[in-house]
């Protein structure tokens, strides 16, 4: 037994470093020596390292140095602790095929547009035309005059000519929703929304102590008579709607329904939050609700869903001066401004036409991907041929959670219905996002695997 132990000690002693004062902190020297020994085979997976006190005595350092060295080696995934049995050289990590992410709604890479070149040119123009000090300092909340003008230009397809003074620039749509909740509701207030919808609304409402109450829908969206009844019953602080290519159902509310809901909000004196990230991606969408009730509807359009998530900028149209001031006060309480460099790039792209070219490329690519999904998923496809996602009704033998788990086991991430309808088990569907996978061929393979899963009951 002692002979075996001696051989093991001699084997492990081969990697011990010769500590020198000029090579940096001693704990890093020890961690580097461990890494080199694993790389060249002097230490093999499963080898037991000396106890920390013993190694400290051998190297003539204090215990803290060895503890830090072992911690650093664990961070590099070189070691693993096995409780009372000691510390061992870890087995190498197996790098599996990465997950094909069909769970996140992001724009696809634009068809026919060199995004990298667009980014380089945009940043070059920003740095050429801007004072670099201004790009790295505080800016007024709500955006500069040029940022608001860019917002008015961005909103022109929805509304025609827009007064830039009515536009507020926010660091993303989620920040805008949170600020609207803070500005126009109080703790305990009710927010009316559709039963299946954007989880970010419910998360923000819960954090602020507000309650989301569902209003029944049909194939065209929220039912007008049900909304009016809920307004009179609950006296809500806000109504939240996502009327174009709704997330997750992909329903686009027709113009007549929009007009009816806007009229109810006017009669009941309730503000509608119109969260409309996909309008510019839709094929001939109806006018926004904000065109039917300009003073009653706050309109949000984000760049994250139409251009790229890295542009954390959204434009909020508030036509009422007092509403705008209340909103800005709420927004400043947690998000002073959009990052100036981001805002400057967004403004540059919008005003020089780059944003339009990028949007056209994303729209084309999204439609190509929808066509692919329709061909592969056949009768189960429920998309409208545009937007970023498909709402897929499941056969009775699958549940959303079980299908999501089975898809995960074959390397595909999808989003089950319960992520959009908390507490509900009645909705048997999943959302498939078509844009987050960069390569169209990988998306095709993933959709084919999903189709094969759907075609047969789970084992």
TrEMBL record:
Keywords: Aminotransferase, DNA-binding, Pyridoxal phosphate, Transcription, Transcription regulation, Transferase. Its EC number is 2.6.1.39. Residues 24-92 form the HTH gntR-type domain. SMART domains: HTH_GNTR. The keyword Nucleotide-binding does not apply. CDD domains: AAT_like, WHTH_GntR. It comes from the Bacteria. Gene3D superfamilies: Type I PLP-dependent aspartate aminotransferase-like (Major domain) (3.40.640.10), Winged helix-like DNA-binding domain superfamily/Winged helix DNA-binding domain (1.10.10.10). InterPro entries: Aminotransferase_I/II_large, HTH_trans_reg/aminotransferase, PyrdxlP-dep_Trfase, PyrdxlP-dep_Trfase_major, Tscrpt_reg_HTH_GntR, WH-like_DNA-bd_sf, WH_DNA-bd_sf. Pfam families: Aminotran_1_2, GntR. GO terms for molecular function: 2-aminoadipate transaminase activity; DNA binding; DNA-binding transcription factor activity; pyridoxal phosphate binding. In the C-terminal section; belongs to the class-I pyridoxal-phosphate-dependent aminotransferase family. This is 2-aminoadipate transaminase.
